[in-house]
Fold this sequence. Notes:
Elements: E1 2-9, H1 13-24, E2 29-33, E3 46-47, E4 56-57, H2 58-71, E5 75-78, E6 81-85, E7 93-97, E8 102-110, E9 114-116, E10 132-133, H3 136-139, E11 147-151, H4 155-164, E12 170-174, H5 184-192, E13 196-199, E14 202-209, E15 214-221, E16 227-231, E17 234-237, E18 241-243, E19 273-275, H6 287-306
Amino acid sequence: MKKVDLVIIGGGPAGLTSGIYASRAGLKTIIIEKGAPGGKLNNTHQIDNYPGLEGKHGYELSMSFTEQAKKFGSELITGEVSSVSNLESKDKKEVTLKNGDKFLTKTIIISTGMTPKKLDIPGYNKYFGKGVSVCVVCDGAFYRGKDIAIIGGGNSATEESLFAANIVNKIYIINNFPTFKAEETTLEKLKELKNVELITNTDIVSINGDEKSINSISVVDKKTNEKKEINVSGVFSYIGWNPASKFLEDTKLLEDDGFLIVNEKGETKIPGVFASGDILDVPFKQVTTAVSGGTISALSAKEYILKE
Length: 308
Ligand SMILES: Cc1cc2nc3c(=O)[nH]c(=O)nc-3n(C[C@H](O)[C@H](O)[C@H](O)COP(=O)(O)OP(=O)(O)OC[C@H]3O[C@@H](n4cnc5c(N)ncnc54)[C@H](O)[C@@H]3O)c2cc1C
């Protein structure tokens, strides 16, 4: 079983930042990532609010973070963590992967972020991957010249609509609330686009197709109860997020909502176990906040090890 100083679970902005700081501080560090390193950055067309790097593509930023973490010595392992155990041990905390591989470590940083919520309507599961998606940046190009629906009213839905507007023929943004919760600047840009229709107070009730692909969605106006069908070839859902913390269910780390709480040093209820980024029960979830938390957790992990 491989022994290290620090296991970072999740290689998004938070985890990769921890990797940069921890390896530069001389900790033997591994980052375990189940998908592509960079996390949700890979699903983001453009980052305009990361200081000093306005207009950077999410993918580019994620590549830079990853290269920097590897350059300073973090080892990146592809795999999904299925459990953690023996957390009270000072130097033999155990991290187990789905494939059975195990790692022993002095410290752990949890930075697994969130996963998209699913729409609980007929057709969602059936057409997932066959017309239903949660990532315009990944799948938008399949709908070039076609009509799509984007479900949601927050920043993710509106920012991704802006990106999709250059690719698809028409976008219906379906928001079940009377107003949008998104940033005003993005909304203003959307309102100027001729191929975007903003629909509020409306629920999507089913996704319809011919078994192989989608041809329409059924929606209902919550005020008038009027039902209608909108012809679309794709549905992109941005209706919120769940914490990616199922693998922690057997620990005492989780709050009731599945998120984690840490102190000002990024430490959880268990000494030597830290957390950062979107997995935290905090109101603002951005790349900058993830990077900040990743820094604090890594430096605190170093401090914890030095106190041994
Ligand atoms: C569409 C969209 C647009 C956005 N636009 C912006 C923006 O313009 N500016 C901005 O600042 N923020 C933006 N954000 C938010 C930003 O992307 C997140 O706040 C940030 O990525 C959080 O970083 P993180 O490392 O905490 O989590 P994530 O980026 O979610 O990374 C977590 C990583 O953990 C991995 N993981 C999960 N579970 C496991 C497991 N059991 N084992 C191994 N690996 C695991 C995941 O695969 C993932 O790679 C946007 C988000 C979205 C979805």
